[in-house]
Each structure stands twice: as C-alpha cells, then as structure tokens.
Design goal:
about 500 residues
Length: about 500
C-alpha cells in the first residue's frame, strides 16, 4: 500500500435482501424450460385422466366417487378462501410496517442529500484542508536480540484514526461549521501511510473537504484541536508517545473520488424509492390476490350427486400445466436464492461494500438469443459495444484513485486467460500505458498470489456473474485486507 492509497467507507449491508425484480427477470430467462415442463406435466395428467375414463366407464359407483371428490374440492376452496383472508390480514400489516420504515429511511436519505456537505460539493472545485501527522512511539529494534518487542505504531495509528473520524472529534468539527454531525459524513478522511515492506511508518494524513477554504480549514482545525485529548487516551490505552503536525496545507482542485461517493448517496435514495415502489406494488398484488380468491370462491358451486361431476381430460390438462409451471418456477426460485452467484455490479457493491469501477459484457451476454438479449438490455447490462470505452474510463479511474501506483494487480476467481486478457486490455489504455498491470489467480485458489498482493501498489478484483460467488468475493477481500492491502475497486463481467 502506498502513501496515497484511498480509504473507502464500507457499504456492505448487514443482511442480504431478495431483489424481486432480479428474480422476475431470472424467471423470464427460464421461460422456455418452464413452459416445456408445464406442457410435459399437462400431457401426463391428461393422459392419465383419459386412461382412467376409458377403463372405468360411467358407472354409478364412479359417479359417487366423483361427487365426493368434487365436494371435497368445494370444501377445500372454502378453506382456501378463509386462509387467504387470514394471510391477507397478516401480510398487509407487515407490508404497511415495511412501507412506513422505508418511507422514514427515504426521508432521512433525502434530508442528508439536501443538507450534507458531501452531497453539495462541486467535485470540480473542492477545497481540501490537509494535515500530515507523525506519531513517534520511540520503538527501536534491539540489535542482536532474538526476541523483539511488538512495535506499537500500528495500534497508535489505529487509535488516532478511530478517534478523529468519530465521536467527540466529529462533534467538535460539526460545531465549528454549524451543522449537524451527520452532515459531515464522507468529508473527513484519515489515511495511514506504510513503507515498502508494509509496515506503518507513523505518518497519517488528515483531510477535510469543503466547498470553500474557510469551512475546510475550520473542520481541520477543530479536529487538530482534539489531538491533545486523543494523545492522552492513546497513551493510556497503548503506550507513551509523541504526536506532531509535520505539514499542513489547503488546496483547491478536482476530486472524482468525491463524485463517486456522491453517486453512492444518490443511489441510496433511488434504491429506497425503488423499495417503496416494490412494496406498494406488493400491496396492490395482495389486494388483487384477495379479490381473485373472493371471486373464485363466490363463483364456486356446491356439487350435487348425479350431476355428472366426472373430471374431463381438459380439466386435468389444465391442472397438469399449472402444477408443472409452478414446479418449474419453484426450482428456478430455489436455485436463485441458494446459488449465491453475483447477480450484477450494483448487487456486488450493495452486498460487499466494495467499490465498482465498471461493468463489461460477459460471454453469456454477448452470445444471448433474442429474448435473453432483450432482457439483458432491460436490465442495463453491457452488450460489449462500449467495452473499449468502459476500459478507458476504468483505467482513468484507477489512475486518479491511485496516481502513484506503478504495480497494478488484477486478481479474482476468473479463468487465467480471462484475467490476463483483462490485465492486458487495461495496460493498453492510455491512462495506464506507463504502469505495470499484471494478473494473478484468486488468493483463495493459489498461494502464489500472496506475494503478488503484497507487492502490488493497487489491487483490482475481477468478478464474472456466470462464475463468481458473492461469498468468494468477501473471502478474497478479507484475505487481502489481512495482508495490509485494500481493493481499489471491482470490475464485473455482467
């Protein structure tokens, strides 16, 4: 990790959510096998009914059996309707509670978007107040000794980092500029510097972003004013040390990183709006389902003995078709819920918190038939026509986020040839033509990847929606973090 490495806020959700839209699209992708299964079941059910009629004939005993079956069906419809009413009452309450919760969250998100310093920044005209701090623990290696004391520098840096971006420090910064502390989220960062061997060198960089120079300086000075208190706490918790400001500056410039954070805030509002629409649609569906159940029950007629209630082949054809369709849909739904595959670039960001550099077309998307291609288009998946432009954009993003990086590593659980092709494509772009872009297998599969990760100045994780599992992405990130590195961003083949 180099001294200019960017620290990203985590965005992973505490629990997985079911994307109803993605589920419906997945069912549409499987429409042909679903219909085929339904037709096969219809033919089987109709055939069995036909054989039964041919063998049994229209005898009174069979009419009695048919009547009893029809009566049981009628009674079951009554029970089904009563159950539908009960479920409706329970589900409606849950839906209303969920809508209320989402509406409150949406209100807060919109309030943040309106009043937060980050959201209202002009990323092309940002003032950055920066201070470089040096923490000296007095640690020295004991020459000739087989056993060395643990260097407390890392623990001290972590303590300062936590104290500066939370609690009383952020409250002090908020008071200094006259805003609620929650509106400062995203405009204060603390970066820890490491040497070439991955060891902390005692230097940390404190940055405050604002729309004007005065506000940026006020935030920074308020945080620096907390250093004495933080020093005392860190000294008591870790060890005696000294801290001093070695450099302080105020600059004006462009920040594409802040633009990405702004977009994340906007996406949060859009996601909440989408959730609210889905809940409202679900409520309407509940109303429609209840109305349908009521209509079905009101149209049911109690059977009479001798009324010719023998089941027709057409009836069993319909039953078989419906059961087959439901069975096939159930299999698709279960697979969707359990396979754990990365569904899309946006879903990967939501579920892992890792930033996404961009999306490229997968082989699946490129080779899709007319129906699948149309569905992919509706989902907004790339078709490959803009891959070259996207590669240049992603390369520019990598360059801007890690301007000092000379050794860029592309890794992931993709096939080796696909990783190497991606690395070569990035290297061939204008922004990265002077850097070294290499590829290595997933750290979960190859121990040889570890030294590549340690040596890299910037790490890009590649994922493919056809082969990559979300939990594998999390595991790769965890291992990379344990090695003292961070993933700069993800490239997703959709």
């Amino acid at each position: 990790m180099n001294e200019n490495q960017t620290t990203y806020p985590t965005g992973a959700q505490d629990e997985e959510e079911i994307d109803l839209v993605a589920l419906m699209v997945t069912l549409l992708h499987k429409l042909k096998p679903i219909l085929l299964t339904a037709v096969v079941c219809a033919v089987l059910a109709g055939g069995l009914a036909g054989v039964k009629i041919l063998r049994g004939g229209a005898v009174s005993a069979e009419d009695q059996v048919a009547y009893e079956e029809a009566l049981a069906e009628y009674q079951q419809k009554e029970k089904d309707y009563e159950f539908a009413v009960q479920q409706y009452e329970l589900t409606v309450k849950s839906n209303e509670d969920a809508q209320s919760s989402v509406q409150e969250a949406l209100k807060q998100a919109q309030d943040y978007a309106e009043k937060s310093l980050l959201k209202n920044l002009d990323v092309y005209n940002v003032w950055t107040a920066q201070a470089d701090l040096y923490i000296d623990s007095g640690y020295k290696i004991q020459p000739g000794s087989a056993y060395q004391n643990v260097d407390p520098t890392g623990a001290l840096l972590a303590a300062y980092q936590k104290q500066l971006v939370s609690g009383d420090s952020m409250n002090a910064a908020a008071d200094a500029v006259g805003v609620d502390v929650r509106y400062l989220k995203g405009v204060v960062t603390v970066e820890l510097s490491q040497n070439d061997s991955g060891e902390y060198n005692g230097v940390m960089t404190l940055q405050a972003y604002a729309a004007d120079q005065q506000t940026a300086e006020k935030i920074l000075n308020a945080l620096l004013g907390r250093l004495d208190l933080i020093h005392d706490k860190a000294a008591a918790a870790v060890c005696s040390h000294s801290v001093r400001v070695i450099d302080q500056s105020v600059t004006q410039g462009v920040s594409t990183e802040l633009r990405a954070l702004q977009q994340t805030s906007s996406e949060d509002v859009q996601n909440l709006q989408s959730q609210l629409v889905e809940l409202q649609s679900a409520r309407q569906a509940l109303d429609d389902n209840l109305a349908s159940a009521k209509s079905t029950w009101e149209s049911a007629e109690e059977p009479a003995l001798g009324g010719g209630a023998a089941s027709s082949v057409a009836k069993y054809l319909l039953i078989g078709f419906l059961l087959g369709g439901v069975l096939a849909c159930g299999v698709v739904v279960v697979k969707f819920l359990l396979d754990g595959m990365v569904y899309s670039a946006s879903e990967l960001n939501r579920s892992t918190g890792l930033p996404v550099l961009g999306a490229l077309a997968s082989d699946r998307t490129k080779k899709a038939g007319k129906l699948d291609a149309k569905l992919y288009q509706m989902e907004g998946r790339p078709d490959g026509s803009a891959d070259a432009e996207m590669l240049c954009l992603m390369a520019q993003t990598i360059r801007s986020r890690a301007p000092e990086a000379k050794n860029i590593l592309v890794t992931g659980d993709l096939p080796a040839d696909q990783l190497e092709a991606l690395a070569a494509a990035l290297q061939a772009t204008e922004p990265l033509r002077g850097q070294s872009v290499t590829a290595a297998e997933s750290i979960l599969k190859a121990a040889a990847t570890v030294p590549h990760v340690v040596a890299a100045d910037a790490i890009v994780l590649a994922a493919d929606c056809t082969v990559t599992r979300t939990d594998a992405v999390r595991e790769q990130n965890e291992k990379i973090v344990r090695l003292g590195k961070q993933i700069l961003g993800c490239i997703v083949y959709e």
